[in-house]
Each structure stands twice: as C-alpha cells, then as structure tokens.
Amino acid sequence: MFTTEKVVSILRACGLMIADQRRLERRPGRYLPVPSGLHPRLAALLKERYPKGLYAHQARGIEAALAGHSVCLSTATASGKSLVFVAAAADLLLRDPAACVVAFYPARALIQDQMRKWRELLQPLGLRWGYIDGGVGMRERLRIVREHRLLLMTPDVTHAWLLPDLTEPPVRSFLDRLAIVILDEAHVYDGVFGSNFALFMRRLRAVSGVRQCISSTATLGDPEAFIATLTGFKPVVLGPESDGAPAAAKTLILARPDEEAGEAGAGGGRRRKGEFDVIVEFVRACAAAADSPFLGFADSRRMVERIVSASVHRQAPGSAGGAGGAGAEVAGATGAAGPQEAAAALEPEAALESEVAREPGAAVEPEAEGVAPAPDAEPALQGLLPYRAGYEDEDRHAIQEALTRGELRGVISTSALELGIDVGEVDLVVLLQPPSSVKAFWQRVGRAGRVRDGVCVVLDPSGTLADGLARYLDRPVEANRLYLDNRYLQYANALCAAVELNGLGAGGGSLARFESLPASFSRMLANELEPREAIPPDLAPLKQRALAGPHREFPLRNAVEREFQILGWGDRQLGSVTYSQALREAYPGAVYYYMARPYRVTHFDFGKARIRVHAERFYTTDPILQRMAFPRWPEGLLGLWTGEGGAFVAEAEMQVSERCTGFVETRGSAKERHEYGPESPYFTRPLNRFFETTGVVWWAPGVRLDELAAQAILGTFCDECGVQERDVGLGQFTSRLSPTGQGEVHGWCIYDATYGSLRLTRELAERFGEMARAAVSRLEDGSPARAQLERLAEALEGLRPAPLPQADLALPAPGQDDDWQVVVARGEPAMLMKGEASEEVVVEGYRYTPRGIVYDLRHPDASVRWQVSYDRIQPIHGVTRLVRWNLVTGEEQPL
Q: Compositionally biased, Low complexity: which spans (predicted)?
C-alpha cells in the first residue's frame, strides 16, 4: 500500500519538494435510530443490518423523503448517501402497489456498479428492479418497462428512447404512475449537460406524474438553488454539517520541482525539467513502486492519453518512434495492453455533405513492423492505462473491473472517474495538474482512503499555487453553472417536447407545465405545436436535422454539435468525438490516441459523421488553430465598463470562427508543419467551426498583448472562477467600431466555447481589472509579456460601469417589410452556414427569384456559377457591411 512515507520518498527521488502538507483527521460516526415511519418490513431489515442505527444524515434524509419532501444529500464521498434514496424507493414500492420510481445515473458504468446496493436492500423484500441503458436491446426495453416498477436508467436513454415512445402502452403506463425521480452524482449535471438536463426534466414532468426528487452528491455549491433550477423541485438539503458517516484520515501533499534538484545541463549547470516531464517521471515512479493501484487525474482527454503513452513508452526505449528526448510531449505506449476493441459496422446514413480526406499512400497495416497492433483478443489487463469519456463501453468497463480487482498498477483519468464508481480500495490519488475548481479537487481527493488512511498528492510543476493547498481548503465549493437561456438548447428541446406532446395529444394547453423555464422556450414550443412564425435562419438547420428525429439528433451531452464515430480497421469502434473535439484531437492527418495507442486520421467524412483511422507509430500532432471573434455591438452588449482614453472591457454576444488550417507533427526531436490545401494528402481546405456565443473583449489605447500575456489572463480567470479551460477559448477580435465610438479596434477575447453560450465569462467581465493584476504574477520578472500586463492593468484602473448604448437602427427581420430587405453588400465577406462545415465566402450579388432571395457567391473557378439561398448566408459581426435593398425597385441604401 502507499503510505505517506512511501509517497514522500517517491517525490524526493523524482526531484520534487513538498511545498505544503495538511492532514484531514479521522472522523467518528454519528448515529440515529432507523426512522419509525418506514414500512415495518423495511424498518426491521434496516435494524437488523445496522444495529448501531443509521448515520445521522441517512436517518434525517429518509424522514424528509417520507414526509413527501424532495431531498438533496450533499455529504462526503463514501458517506452512504445511496441508502437514503434506496430506502425511500423501497418504502414507496411496498406501500403503493401501483407507484413507479426511476433512478437516473449519469453513466452506464455507474448503473452496473450501484446495482449491488439496490440488490442488497430490495431482494430480501421481494422487490424487483430493471435497468435500461444503451446496451439493452430495443425489444427488451419494452418488456423491462412492462414488468418493473423501479427502473435504473441513464438520462441519455430516457431522452433518446423512452420519451419519443410515449404512445407505447407500457411507457405511457409507467410514466403516469411515476412518483419519484432519483438523481445520483448530481454535481455532474453542469454546463451543457446540466442545462440540457434541466430542460429534459421539465419535459419529463410535463408527461408524467412525478412529484418528488431525491438527489445526492459530494460536492455542490448552493445545492438548494441548483437543484431547484435543475429539476424544478425545491429540496430539503442535508450538507456537510449533517454528515454522520465516519471518515478515514487523509494526508494532502502539494509538490513542485525542487530548484536544486534539476538535471545536469551543459557546462555543469542544472537544467529544470519541463512540466510534462515532471508529470511523466512521477507517474512512472508510482507505477514502478505500486503494490496496490493508484489513480491519477488530468484535465483533458489528450493529456491523459499522452501521459500514459509517454510513461509506458519510456519504459521501453527501443520501440518505434524513438525516445523523443526529454522535451518530447509524447513518445508512445508499446507496452500498454488495452481491452478488446469492439468490431461493429455502422448502419448507413444519408450523406448531407461529404468531403473525404485523401489517404497519403497505402494505409499502414496494423501488423506492420514498428506499429503497435490492434489486439485480436482481450489481453491480460495490467500496467498503466488511461480512462476518459469517449471510450467504447466495453473498454471502460474492462478498465474498471481490472482496477477493482487490483490487476492494474494505476489508471490516469479525466474527470470521468470522479463518479462514485467502486474501484476498490485506493490508497493514493495524484492530481497531475492543479484542478481549476474546488469541486474537482474534493471529488478527486475523495477517491482515496475510503476505508483505510489515504494519501493525495497535488503536483504543481509550474508553481502556480502560490497560496498552497489553501486555494482548495479555504474556499467554498463553486456552484454548478446552468444557463437555460441558451437558444440552441432551448430550440432542440422544444423540438423534442413538440414530438412528445403531440404523441400525447396534449397540444398547446400543456405550455403551463414549462412556466419555470425562460419565456422564450414556451414561445418556441408554441410555434412548433401551432406554427405561426418563420423560424430564424440560425435555427433553421436544427429544424432540418430534426426531421431524422430530434431526440436522436440532439443528445443531452453535446449541445447541438454532431458526434463523429471513429472507426479503425474492420470498422472497429475507437470512441467518438464532437466536432469541436475533432478540431483538437481527430482532424485530418492527426495522430489520435485511443487507450494510449496511436492512430492516423485518414478519412474525415462530414456527411456520415465518421472519421477513419489506421494504426500509426508513436508520433504526436498538434492542430494549427486560428481563432477569431466578432462581437455584435451595440445591440449585443451585455455589459460595458469604460476608462480613460476610450479603454473598455465589454461582455457581448459574438460570433466565433475556429479554423484548423493544418497541424504540426513531432517525430522525436523533429517537427514538421503541414498546411491543408489542394496539394495536401490529407484535406483540401481548412476545417471551420463558426458559432454564436458570448465572450469578453478588452482594449486600451497604446497597449498590445502577445499571446503569452493573454493566456495568463485566461489561466487566472479559470483558476479564480473554477472554470475548465476546455470550456472557454482565447482568440483575437476585430471590429470596425468600438462600443465607445472610438473607431476600429482589435485585440484579444476570451469566449464561451459552447454553441449559444453558457455565460461562463460573465464573472471575468465583472472582475477584469482584478484578473489582469493577478495575471501579472504568473509571468517571469522582466519578461515582455509581464510588462504588457502591467501596462494593461494600469490603463484599466478606474474602470466604471457604463450605460449600454442603443443601436442606431433597428434592422428589419425577414418578412417585417414587404419591400425592403437587409442583405450583405456586394464584395463583402460572410459565412456560408453548412452545419459544422461552415466556410467564409465573398458575396458577388443578390437576386429575387420565385424561391426567394438568393446570393451569388465568388467561386475559385470563375467559370462556375455558385448561388445559395438567403438563409444560408450569415454576416460576420463588425466585418460584413450590410445594405437595405428594395425588392421592387432594386434601390440600395447604406446602413
């Protein structure tokens, strides 16, 4: 096992010093009698099982549930929260022979793990339960619903299958009798998933009889307000002060590189190791010393894959790809043995629009020399493995099982293993990067020392935690972020709700059931039930996609982005990515890692949402990304702060263009830059993601920041406000007019990376001066970037809120004026909207036809005539010049 002494020894051997150390002492249990209001058979069983009584929060939680209250249990990990909702469900099923219960788990693996707890309590009482997740066949699902009153389900399958099938008698009967909804691991419902789930819960309540919600989580800031927003039920909250469960002791260690222990460099000096090398060396040392499994956490999918790949490969320096040198970010994973990859052919799909990457010569066979082969049969699970979302279910399950049985030395995971999945007794948890949120810190720390004392190490290779562990121990847990005003999420859910209500024959009279949502949702839904208004152009593509079934097209976790399936040899499924993830991990020509094995992307098919790969050597690639933001002001301003000389900070609605123009490939110490284009063997043009969101821009006269300085502001904001860097983006902005009327401005912008926005950057705008000053300390003394930030902070001193200016002219929307129409002026750039494959074009002209207004676009081949409908062209805020055009006379007026 990993003791504190053993871990400290490993740290020192890796040249790491202890910068802070704290101990969380053991906590004794506090007990209360089994509640007398429980059904006699259940009460007798609990008294037999727990002769000391129940933990204090368990007893109080059961009492509140029996009284008909919704309940939120927000106590520590491994505190027995599940007993409360299992007992409440069992009591209802015993008392009411018609009542039904559904328990939602945010992951299929969690259902399998938690069934043991349901079985232990329900089986002796003669109660039955069923479970339905994505792995249960369609025919079986209706039988399970028909034969069980308690269902364990993922919200995903409920959304994608149960709600669209309301006309099926077993489904209709179950929902009519549904009384309690249970949410385990409620903290997971955050951001896009949480906002979508909140809309989903209102849809579920609109078509069922549910009257009570019981939720549980170890980490929630302001749980009462959050659960009320998430579910519409106001809960009784039992938080840390109510926690009666005993807890083992934990030692928390903050470690960073010892400046005196660097590697020997040229001339006899000491060379400081790179941050990635520090992480990899410590992971390798822990794996080598492990006599029981350990867990490591990193914040991104790519980082998890690269850490494992580099750690394992450096144990086998003679394998393909070379050692890569001390500075190589990734070397490979020739020693890793992953579970069997599933071989399942995808069903044909209608191709909307397709561009296929051309293969650079013959594909490398999996068995080719120097290439790690894809396994034909499941090998023994051992060593070090990665774990993240996007894996195939059988692979994730195999890793969990091997970890639980103690067959692995360790697992390096994203937040996917923060869930309360039973992974056996883990003595050591390593946070390989300082987590950006207090919530993530406690979720990860809670995975160690559930029975016996544990050790938790926070690696701080860049020395950013100036206040040590106090950053996490002395701060409250952040509130989850839900944003129900996202119009894209609203419309996707309105399309689903319309199908559901039409299936019930409920019609527009059911809109009152959605009164706790923004009024815009009800307007969208009413228009779907009884169409009276034209659909806005930016929502029209969603309506088109919904023809294939909105529940299928708009999964709960992805906003409105399509999901791409990654396929290897023989159609082996190698996980999935959204389009935004593909721009970072699986773009044409990329080396994509799955289970620490490298694969080259050879085909990128938009129409079928498929990415094809073949096995590759242990190289790495990084995308060349260009990010530009185009704020919409004055009408899109959400907040404005002004200073001297026209300086300003603004939160605004904006368009964002993320273009992947190629990639840089690293082979050992050699780097090669590859640009997409007509001569590229991978792709003929850049990939572009163009979307509406919100963000924060800043500008001060005479102050220009380089990317390093802007990145320091982004990092400070994420650390201070508990925002994951993957959820926001950093880019440059440009506008022909400042919101203060100063003329053309350009600079840096931090934006929300979600279609339609979650308003994640709102706090940055409100505290920008504070963030800019704090960012100075992240940069080295005397560096140009630090000097730039100091000038920026000085220029923004005294910022004060300003009234939001009004637009000079209200632009008529299509159909508002029969004679005049706002159009893109001739010769102006604009965006051609094609779902994920949007691209920048130049408008040559416009015409009125029997089909409506069409634009003539400039084509690379002058002999080609290219025209598209009016609603497929979107002006670029602050860049595209618009004019008013009279459909009758052809007259134009400038705006």
A: 328-377
Find the helix or strand (DSSP H, E) in which 152 lies: strand 150-153
Tell me the C-alpha to C-alpha distance, in Å, between residue 638 and each of 192, 698, 886.
21, 14, 32
The Cα-based distances of 124 to 42, 82, 435 in angstroms read: 9, 17, 43
Q: Inter-axis angle of helices 393-404 and 108-122, to 10 degrees?
A: 60
Which CA distances in Å does 759 have to 276, 348, 432?
Answer: 32, 38, 28
Half-sphere exposure of 795 (CA within 13 A, CB side): 19
Q: Does the structural domain 57-242 have CATH classification 3.40.50.300?
A: yes
On the CB side of 725, how many CA atoms lie within 13 Å of its CA? 17
What is the C-alpha separation between 24 and 2, in angstroms, rounded?
17
Cα-to-chain-centroid distance, residue 15: 34
Give CA–CA dist 151/154, Å, rounded: 10
DSSP-assigned beta bridge partners for residue 72:
215, 237
> Cα–chain-centroid distance for residue 80?
28
Give the closest residue to 179 by CA, choosing from 142, 205, 145, 216: 205
CA 882 to each of CA 243, 738, 817: distance values in angstroms, whole numbers, following the listed order: 61, 18, 16
Rg of the chain taking only CA atoms, in angstroms: 28
Distance CA 385, CA 409 (A): 9
Instruction: Determine contact, residues 351/610, Cβ cutoff 8 Å.
Output: no
Residues 254-282: tens digit of each pLDDT = 999 987 655 554 444 445 678 899 999 99
Listed in sequence order, the residues at least 6 apart from 874 whose beta carbon sits closer than 8 Å to its beta carbon are 537, 538, 655, 690, 830, 831, 833
pLDDT tens readout for residues 183-193: 999 999 999 99
Beta bridge partners of 822: 884
Best CA proximity match to 279, nearest among 438, 472, 431: 431
Dihedral sign, Cα of residue 514, residue 520, residue 525, residue 531:
positive
Q: Tell me the pairing of strands 610-615 and 597-605.
A: antiparallel
Per-domain residue ranges of the chain:
57-242, 487-553, 622-801, 820-894
Question: Would you tell me how many other CB atoms lie within 10 Å of the CB of residue 144?
Answer: 17
Closest listed residue to residue 249, CA positions, set 475, 445, 30, 468: 445
**Whole-number Å distance between alpha carbons of 49 and 390:** 39
For 811-827, what is each residue's pLDDT tens digit?
444 444 568 889 999 99
Other beta carbons within 10 angstroms of residue 861's beta carbon come to 7
Q: By C-alpha distance, which of 298, 108, 105, 207 is closest to 726?
A: 298
Outline where DSSP puts E strands in 744-837: 745-752, 800-801, 820-824, 829-832
Sheet with 839-849, edge to edge strand ranges: 866-869, 852-857, 839-849, 829-832, 873-875
- Could you count the other beta carbons within 10 Å of the beta carbon of residue 354? 14
Report the relative pairing of strands 235-238 and 648-667 from DSSP bridges.
unpaired
pTM, rounded to two decimals = 0.85
Structure tokens at 207: 């078509």
User: 820-894: what CATH class?
Assistant: mainly beta
Which tens digit of pLDDT belongs to each residue from 570-600?
A: 999 999 999 999 999 999 999 999 999 999 9
Contact 759, 653 (CB under 8 A): no
Across 343-369, average pLDDT: 33
The model's pLDDT over 503-533, given as tens digits with 9 standing for 90+, comes to 887 765 677 789 899 999 999 999 999 999 8
End-to-end CA gap in the chain: 72
How far lies 9's CA from each of 15, 289, 383, 556, 762, in Å?
10, 11, 21, 45, 44
| Cα separation, 469 vs 138, whole angstroms | 49
H runs (alpha helix) in 637-776: 707-721, 762-766, 768-776
CA quadruple 250, 256, 260, 263: dihedral positive or negative? positive
> What's the CA gap between 763 and 517, in Å, rounded?
23
Q: What are phi and psi of 268, to 5 degrees?
A: 85, 0
**What average pLDDT does the segment 737-766 reach?**
91
